[in-house]
Automatic annotation (TrEMBL):
InterPro entries: P-loop_NTPase, Sulfotransferase_dom. It is an enzyme of class 2 (transferase). The keyword Transport does not apply. Its EC number is 2.8.2.-. This is Sulfotransferase. Keywords: Transferase. Belongs to the sulfotransferase 1 family. It comes from the Eukaryota.
Length: 174
């Protein structure tokens, strides 16, 4: 699953802010983080290349790689749960569908439900000691509009056009 680069950047920056606070180190500024992101410097490597690689692989081999976009899943979660079950070779029966099994899964796996599980409120990641709660912020699409300046938006749009040109990969921005 990928996320539109604008929201993905904000989510990652906020995550890094939380980690820095936990470790009592100076957090990276928004502007510095943005510059690094635009240069492809990211904790997990250039995210656009990573996303594009999986996008292309999913087109080349759709039986082995299922590609979801966070914004689409948020828009119609039931559809995507059903699609995932089909992809895994475990389609829902008509009886399961009529009994609301898909809707129950959607409820159990919802952002709000996951965020409020005790393990995600108080637990920590083994090895790093980072709080599980750091992985749950808002779960909203379009929060980037609360942070980006018009010039940052323009720069990110140009970067996206550059990186994803000719791929038919598009993102919903809000």
């Amino acid at each position: 699953m990928c996320r539109n680069p604008f929201d993905q950047f904000i989510s990652h920056w906020k995550f890094l802010q939380n980690i820095a606070q936990e470790q009592n180190v100076q957090p990276i500024s928004f502007e510095e983080a943005f510059e690094l992101f635009c240069k492809g410097i990211h904790s997990f490597g250039p995210s656009s290349e990573h996303v594009l690689g999986y996008w292309k692989a999913s087109l080349d081999n759709p039986r082995k790689i299922l590609f979801f976009k966070y914004e689409d899943v948020k828009e119609d979660t039931s559809f995507h749960v059903n699609k995932l079950a089909d992809f895994l070779g475990c389609p829902f029966s008509d009886v399961e569908k009529s009994r609301g099994v898909i809707e129950e899964i959607v409820k159990l796996c919802s952002f709000d439900n996951m965020k409020h599980l005790e393990v995600n409120k108080t637990g920590r990641i083994r090895g790093s000691g980072a709080k599980n709660s750091n992985f749950f912020r808002k779960g909203k699409v379009g929060d980037w509009t609360n942070y980006f300046t018009p010039s940052m938006s323009e720069r990110m749009n140009k970067l996206m056009e550059e990186k994803f040109s000719g791929s038919d990969l598009t993102f919903k921005m809000s």
